[in-house]
């Protein structure tokens, strides 16, 4: 699928829009979801421009999942998360709303998640949760 370099996550990656970051290296960025489905909802994105997992080169996918695991471990420790939902939507037909591949890490249970990308979270609370996750990385 053609990549739109004006999508929100591309703009966050370029520093044109703010984000509450928890981890960054040359290939990957992890930051807090602005409309969390549970406290601590974090997004992990490869910097490689790709709309869906199907478009992402395998080496970038392999590296990104390592960071997904790293952030999940930090989340478990920092937030005492008993469960972590890993979610990844491919295509608008699947419910994807931002056309840059991303992995959702959501502490809690699939059966108790808030609605997807609907309600803005409290930014101060999100910042505090991010600090906890960062400290556990
Ligand atoms: P998708 O529907 O594409 O799987 O998920 C996109 C996610 O990005 C949603 O959970 C939504 O809350 C989040 N999101 C949308 N716009 C922004 C933004 O500007 N900043 C951040 N941090 N998250 C966003």
TrEMBL record:
GO terms for molecular function: catalytic activity. InterPro entries: HINT, Histidine_triad_HIT, HIT-like, HIT-like_sf. It holds the Pfam family HIT. Residues 8-115 form the HIT domain. GO terms for biological process: nucleotide metabolic process. A motif (Histidine triad motif) lies at residues 100-104. CDD domains: HINT_subgroup. The active site is at 102 (tele-amp-histidine intermediate). This is HIT family protein. The lineage of its organism: Bacteria, Pseudomonadati, Pseudomonadota, Gammaproteobacteria, Moraxellales.
């Amino acid at each position: 699928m053609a990549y739109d370099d004006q999508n929100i996550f591309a703009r966050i990656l370029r520093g044109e829009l703010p984000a509450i970051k928890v981890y960054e290296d040359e290939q990957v960025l992890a930051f807090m979801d602005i409309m969390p489905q549970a406290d601590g909802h974090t997004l992990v994105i490869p910097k490689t421009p790709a709309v869906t997992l199907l478009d992402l080169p395998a080496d970038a996918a392999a590296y990104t999942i390592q960071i997904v695991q790293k952030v999940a471990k930090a989340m478990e420790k920092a937030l005492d998360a008993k469960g972590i939902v890993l979610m990844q939507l491919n295509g608008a037909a699947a419910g994807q709303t931002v056309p840059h591949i991303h992995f959702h890490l959501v502490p809690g249970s699939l059966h108790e998640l808030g609605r997807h990308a609907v309600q803005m979270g409290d930014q101060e609370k999100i910042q505090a949760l991010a600090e906890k996750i960062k400290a556990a990385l």
